[in-house]
Amino acid sequence: MAFLLIHPALKGVAGLFASRGKELCLVGGAVRDMLRGKVAHDWDLATDAQPEEVRTIFAGAHAKVIPTGIKHGTVTVLRKGRSMEITTYRTEADYSDGRRPDQVSYSTSIEEDLSRRDFTMNAIALRLPEGKKIDPFGGEADIKARIIRCVGDPAKRFSEDGLRALRAARFAAQLSFTVEARTLAAIEGALETSAKVSAERVKDELEKMLMSRRPSIAFRLMEQTGLLLLFLPELARCRGVEQKGAHRFDVLDHSFLACDFAAETDCPLEVRLAALFHDLGKAATKRVDDSGEVSFHRHEAESEKLSREILCRLRFSNAVIEKVCHLTKEHMFHYTDDWSDAAARRFLARVGREHLADLYKLRRADSYASAGIAPPANYLLPLAERVERIVAEAQAISLKDLALSGRDLIAAGVPPGKIMGKILDELLEAVIEDPALNERGRLIEIAFKLSDKFAGR
Ligand code: ATP
Ligand code: MG
Fold first, then answer.
1. Which residues, in sequence order, are CB contacts of 357 under 8 Å at separation 6+?
2. Stated pTM of the model
């Protein structure tokens, strides 16, 4: 099939270019997705018109032209409720920083523009308005064979731009494609260039890997090529950390499986990250006793510390960092029917109601990844129901639930001062243990005793 069906909105835009004697092609992910039989999620366009001319072409055409990447010849056009990126054909010169070409020179040929693109599947153009395919590097055949292959010499392409190696791993996970052998082999030789990629770009790629259908495809490729050791050494070190007991896998395979399960069960980014990082601390905390028993005492605290280091280094937002660290720190709960009510209240107080659903998801992924067998969807239901009962009965689990405040205690004659905070914390613990104590008179009585104790009387 030489022609693909072109959206009428694109035909309209192509008409504007044609009336000025300019070319317009659909390029990049949109063409790749159409050839895979999927609907394109955004439109990247390429033209022989220079950015200034693009602006002129849209003047009077009810469009807004924003110079989003003008240094690289890219403008964003908003028209009839749609957004598209239009980039002038380019050839690229030297890449001394391993990330961006030193200078951008415009070209008048789409073939030349396609030759600077990363992978054959991304180097196909559809000439508009008719939709004729231009595929100089056999991209369509590679898409059919589900192969990611560099345009040109892979060693050269990866050493020009270190981001491409991460993109290869990311696309493999997003599309379930394999990376062609020569392309894969060239990644290792260009790790020095990949090391120069900015933290923000690495984070963007990792996020896309995590949000793909099977993140482990990307992470295994990263491990195989040395990218994992480069960007996530804490995770790479989990290879070969054997666990025994109920576990069938070493810590790294366990983490990959947990992350895949979180992806499969449609978990948000934070849960996927926590699934990947929750056992990082096992490498450093592993102990084997005389009888050969393996333990990882308090590994969750170490995992939390390492997760924070990684996420800060990669410039994740504070909200993501705090959520992932909290889930990681709390992932080691083991509910049994004989938990006391107080234990259930302490669990709720520690985790926080707003984090429960995500923590259950993480626990389920973790449990799956121990033996590779999915636990029933409702296996945490007994705990969840019990916790919901505590919430419904409005049992006290935080300071604001106490029957009195610090101000009330002072008014009752408890001396103010630094120990007030400690007194309130202890009152809360007492109430979580025994809800019947949550009553003004009884709390004031306990507060006086505590005040004496803290003052050493
Ligand atoms: P998606 O938008 O689904 O992530 P995409 O292929 O459209 O995938 P973009 O990052 O939007 O990816 O880039 C658009 C196109 O620009 C790519 O298809 C590719 O042709 C080219 N491209 C992007 N990044 C690079 C790069 N680092 N090196 C070479 N070409 C690139
Ligand atoms: Mg795109």
1. none
2. 0.93
